[in-house]
Amino acid sequence: MTERSYSLLEAVNLALHRAMHDDPNVVLLGEDIGVNGGVFRATLGLREAFGLKRVMDTPLAENMIAGLSIGMAAQGLRPVMEIQFLGFIYAAMEQLVSHASRLRNRTCGRLSCPLVVRAPMGAGIRAPEHHSESVEALFAHIPGLRVVVPSSPARAYGLLLGAIDDPDPVIFLEPTRLYRMNPQPLIDDGRRLPLDSCFTLREGSDLTLISWGGALVETLQAAERLAERGIAAEVIDLASIKPLDLQTLEASARKTGRVVIVQEAPVSGGIAADICAALYERVWFELQAPIMRVCAPDIPPPLYRLEPLYMPEVGEILAACERVLDFG
Amino acid sequence: MQDLPFTRFLAANGQLASDAPAWSAESQPLQQLYRQMVLTRLFDQKIVALQRTGRIGTFAPALGQEAIGVAIGSRMQAEDVFVPYYRDSAAQLMRGVSMEEILLYWGGDERGSDYRAASAVQDFPVCVPIATQALHACGVATAFRIRGEHRVAVTTCGDGATSKGDFLEALNVAGAWQLPVVFVINNNQWAISVPRRIQCAAPTLAQKALGAGIPGEQVDGNDVIAVCERLDAALQRARQGKGPTLLECLTYRLGDHTTADDASRYRSEEEVRQAWREEPIVRLRTLLAGRGDWDEAREQALVADAQLRLQQAVERFEAIAPRAPEALFEHVYASWPQALAEQRETLLERLRRQATQGVAHD
């Protein structure tokens, strides 16, 4: 098996090739995914490799793509549907929330819905309006769904294969900011990664930094800056937004006693709040300082001239770390 | 615009048109349809009575629309897939869904959608969010096409549902991909309190098919012969790979929208009285009786037999105990995620505590 470097985007493409090759029930559908290979080229070459019947360019209607995927999934196919940008997914919400997430439960397991929704997420690529959303929390709230955000090529590959294999609907959100950043060597060995586990990217005993998706870039930079000052930060990639791997988060919080959560999305009703609450319930007496959140304010992602002000920033993360470290 | 086809063979007075299909000259097939329509109506009345006495929850009766569901049930093949809306017990019974399952569903138990019959095991459960099921049928049909199977997905909806994006998106993709799907609009003239005339300015709902490039036509939905005949044609087209069809069946909702509704708030008694003169069961009985194929004795035997079956189904339904509390977590995911184990434990712990304190959980 040859090992070469893949970007996160290429890793997604590689996983799709692998999944379609290994399982004839895997089909792809979405807008511009066939002839064009997707607007980001995530599905490049798949139509040529697996044919028109399995790689479907759909009419332009997100809700239709979701509804169709539900019907196909109930018939035993494993549809991987692409929503071109996460900001366009709202049209599909009724299908995903009222049907995909609960078909299994409604029928006591008689019918199920093993579909994957792939959608690019997040800001930071100077995209037009409605192309920069991070709304993972909307889906985390829905029983029956899983929500996964990869943040490296290897995790994109393994998590996407795991998501396609999973017997239930998985919302798989790909941070556009990371699509072409830092290619890494990757072996196309078909290995699945678990869908309900965090990944500890950096071990440390002084404080815990928790993040996911694009915001991990700044989070890791902050950890590096702290290391230069002799402070050992543990960095956890949440990866599984729903369900939360509270066991790993709790163990780290217990070890360091100090936690900062970095979230690209607006603060209210976000995943960071959920993590905070869960940790306070579990490790209150072992915490040395209040948990701090670094999130976007409650504003829509701005058009790109002021976009940097919306994004998590290393200085801001470091300031939160200072406050947590200075406490007590 | 050119007028769309409209089909009626059996008039409200029981007169059969001379161009009626050959099979309608025979006694057996018509008697079978008749028996099934009567059974459906009695089942419906039974459920409404159970609701009125608090033994079952809110229910959407199909009073007056029996011909459409019975035609669907009699014309689909076992291997086809039915994707119903929520007023479809007529067709569901014929697909093999049991009376207890229908009673369980409306009686507040998820097991009512866990159809056991082989012919219904791939059918979708009743769909409550309006028109969303039309897209599921297109997905099912897409799966048939991908696998090269000669099966058809049949989906139903009401007149109100044709105003929703899902319905139009479904017609559009079915046309674009020439999917083996049949759309049946159960146009019963009322979307709860909103009448057909203010639902949409188009003179027919069937013409919505034209914008999607697929054939649309109207049928007298109270004429079971016409509905069967046009369904046969649509099913055959779909099975032969010739694409989808939209059938608008014109009928009337003689009952309330659901048992929680009071239709007298928004429509006149005169309108309902007029609609009763057009209903599907009497006209078929008139035809059969005129031919000497039906009489009062057979009617009484049919009703007595149906009542017995209904009573037995109700007894079986009422003997089924509620699911165990653990069942709440059993099918949310294929297996309850370990990461959420604590949530399940919290509820079970509460039940254990209540049990030791002698408090019933319901």
From TrEMBL, chain A:
A Gene Ontology molecular function term of the record: oxidoreductase activity
Cofactor requirements of the protein: thiamine diphosphate
Protein species of origin: Pseudomonas mangrovi
One family name in Pfam for this protein: Transketolase_C
InterPro entries: THDP-binding (IPR029061), Transketo_C/PFOR_II (IPR009014), Transketolase-like_Pyr-bd (IPR005475), Transketolase_C (IPR033248)
Keyword list, A-Z: Oxidoreductase, Thiamine pyrophosphate
Function: The branched-chain alpha-keto dehydrogenase complex catalyzes the overall conversion of alpha-keto acids to acyl-CoA and CO(2). It contains multiple copies of three enzymatic components: branched-chain alpha-keto acid decarboxylase (E1), lipoamide acyltransferase (E2) and lipoamide dehydrogenase (E3).
Transketolase-like pyrimidine-binding domain sequence ranges: 6-181
SMART domains: Transket_pyr
Keyword Zinc found: no
Stored SUPFAM superfamilies: Thiamin diphosphate-binding fold (THDP-binding), TK C-terminal domain-like
PANTHER family in the record: PYRUVATE DEHYDROGENASE E1 COMPONENT BETA SUBUNIT, PYRUVATE DEHYDROGENASE E1 COMPONENT SUBUNIT BETA
Name of protein: 2-oxoisovalerate dehydrogenase subunit beta
